[in-house]
Amino acid sequence: MTTHHTHNDLHSEQGGLAGEHPGRAKNPVIKVRDLAWLEFEKPDLVAAETFAHAFGFTTSHRGADEIHLRGTRAGTPAVIVRRGTSSKLSAAAFQAAAESDLDRLAGRVAGVVTDLPESIGGRVLDTVDPSGMRVRVVHGSRTLPEVAGQVPLVHNAGAATPRTNLTQRPPREPAKVERLGHLVLQSTRYREALDWYLEHLGLIVSDFLFYEGQRAQGPTMSFIRCDRGDEPTDHHTLAMTLGPSNRYVHSAFQVADLDALAAGGEFLGDAGYRRSWGIGRHIQGSQIFDYWRDDKGFLVEHFTDGDLFDASLEPGWAPMTASGLAQWGPPASADFLGIKPGAEALIEARAVAAALRAPDNEFDLARLRGLLKVARS
Predict the structure, then answer these.
(1) How many of the other CB atoms lie within 10 Å of CB of 213?
(2) Which of 141, 109, 149, 89 is closest to 28 using CA atoms?
(3) Alpha-carbon distances of 271 from 55, 264, 274, 276, rounded to whole Å
(4) pLDDT tens for residues 289-348?
(5) In this structure, what DSSP letter does residue 271 have?
(6) Pick from 265, 288, 258, 277: which is nearest to 331 by CA?
(7) Which of 71, 137, 232, 343 has the smallest set of CB atoms within 10 Å of its CB?
(8) What is the DSSP string of 326-351?
(9) H or E segment at 194?
């Protein structure tokens, strides 16, 4: 008799119905172990590095046109920023379990295996997902040693009172980033892109969301984790959502605990940066979260206390609503939802018009109505 619970006791929905998406591929080409790093382009590396240090990164490599930003845990850099003419996410790198996986994947996608620069080390397979996102699968990159991080505070909770004659005084300082947690992408070809990641990288779905009244038309968002078998891994390493444009939504980075997250937020606010939404606790993934805008307006998240799942759990299913994004905390902001009046909302409105005219995507009038309902729910 198994000791694992089903997903029924973790969600208000009863899991997938007969004929719905299973949330995993039967025979994936490879199974990646994690996100390795994210690559951005920005015109001003000084401003990018200034924000990064306030957010809690340290610089592990600095060149004339490139900086590497790391967390405190051992591993590769979490973020690579290169000088570019515009600001954009240029690639997401995933960690392969073995070097032979690069050759196996190369036989199935339009990509070649090459050496990475000396500053990173190892080998890489470059390819592109159905939304046009550059995907890099890497192996053998140089491991940066662990460095000192923030130690979670000792709490007196309930009858357990381990702290006596000691006060709590968390400093107002940057919340030291421990590691890269996840990436969220929007796609006009959500279902095709989702299946690509499941089939080629062996990712599996933790949770599906659907527009209310449109479950029969299939999910419109998925929270996707790595398949490490019995070894627990983050509830989601990648999340994907249907939308009128192919774009970066946000990336998330783990910190030590709630006090580090909250005090780090006070530091960011004092430094003149803008909170987008928080502090609160999510439903899917359970993370305590705090969202900020960086120097170029990219959405980035501090999180702590996220769920870990092994490969035995099947996907949960739930309706997508703005109020359903958090268990507690302030209501999801217009800025976070992308409906705050301004340049970003105008760009997305133009994307809606273009997507509705285009014949080769999944974003139609019915999906637009569902998306608008989400913002009001």
Answers:
(1) 12
(2) 109
(3) 10, 11, 9, 15
(4) 999 999 999 999 999 999 999 999 999 999 999 999 999 999 999 999 988 888 888 888
(5) T
(6) 277
(7) 343
(8) EEESSPPPHHHHT-STTHHHHHHHHH
(9) helix 190-201
CA distance 231 to 204: 14
Buried b (16+ CB within 10 A) or exposed e, 295-316: bbebbbbbbbbbbebebebbbb
Task: Report how far residue 94's alpha carbon sits from residue 55's, in angstroms, rounded to the nearest whole number.
Answer: 23
Residue given tokens 């995933």 in the structure block: 94
Edge-to-edge strand order for the sheet containing 34-42?
58-62, 66-70, 79-83, 34-42, 88-95, 134-139, 123-128, 113-115
| Torsion on CA atoms 278, 234, 237, 127, rounded to nearest 10 | 160
Cα gap 73→200, rounded to integer Å: 28
Q: Which two tokens stand for residue 160?
A: 């357990």
3-state secondary structure of 223: strand
Q: Is 272 helix (H, G, I), strand (E, B) or coil?
A: coil
Do 208 and 191 meet the contact criterion of CB atoms below 8 Å apart?
Answer: no
Tokens matching residue 271: 């430094």
Of the candidates 317, 312, 314, which has an alpha carbon nearest to the alpha carbon of residue 3?
Answer: 312
Specify the pTM. Answer: 0.94
Question: CA dist 181 to 145, 226, 237, 251, 312, Å?
Answer: 18, 12, 6, 8, 21
